[in-house]
Amino acid sequence: MDQYADGHILSFWDCFGKKTEESKTWLLNILRKHGCKTVLDVACGPGTESEMLVEEGFTVLSSDASDVMITTAKKTRAARKEAIFSTWEIKLANWLTLPEDIQKPGEGFDAVICVGNSLPHLPFTDGPDRLQPYKVSLTNIISMVRPGGILIFDHRNFDCILETGKSMLNTVYRNTLTKRIELSIDYEKGVPQMIIMNYIFPPIGGQQQTRTFSIDFYPVLLNEFNQMLSTILGGTFQHSLYGDFKPYTPGDVHVKPGVFSHVVRV
Ligand code: SAH
pTM of the prediction? Predict the structure, then answer.
């Protein structure tokens, strides 16, 4: 999260690229299929998904732990003069303290989304369970949805990244300008702790030099993510898994998606 605090990332934001039509259509279809009207976007950034959802008629509360992102999302809102944009609420909130930061309406929101490979920004702890912050965050995020509502999470395919030492460009997700991603992976006693991703962008303004933006991620494996959901939710939930927005069966060796999306109905 601290990586977002100084706002430096925003000067590269356009280079990361707008979300593709495929990813937007997928999200809208899932929300509509489940009859969702109210959406809590807990990693809104500058308003990427939220703005689109307001436009499409959803009632949206957007939150993020970064002041800079919240200020930028508010600017995104201010630039939209249509009446419907006055319904868009934006609030500073951290996943680690979500129930204190956000009051849920009645039994909860119809849908809660946490997308854009946001959860892997959570630093692991040094203690015996490195995934502890994930567990607290997932528990808090899940507590915001109403019974029968849905949650949408996504994360990069870290299984593949750790297996191959390479990262795909994810062009299914974003119309990115990234030329390539260089990785450096930190291991401790054989366990991957942190991945530094260096995004290489083309030069701008007649310059020769490519530009680099570095960001750290804390890689969670698909099995670990699934296991955390099962532990938090118990046996009574529906879980659909997508790889690059297509239904995905774990272990399928024929496809190597860049991003996994989890749709969970509680
Ligand atoms: N969903 C947007 C933004 C993704 S960037 C998109 O896809 O474009 C990831 C966002 O997660 C950042 O805005 C960052 O500030 C936020 N974030 C990281 N850690 C967080 C935490 N602990 N609580 C809330 N937001 C967090």
Answer: 0.95
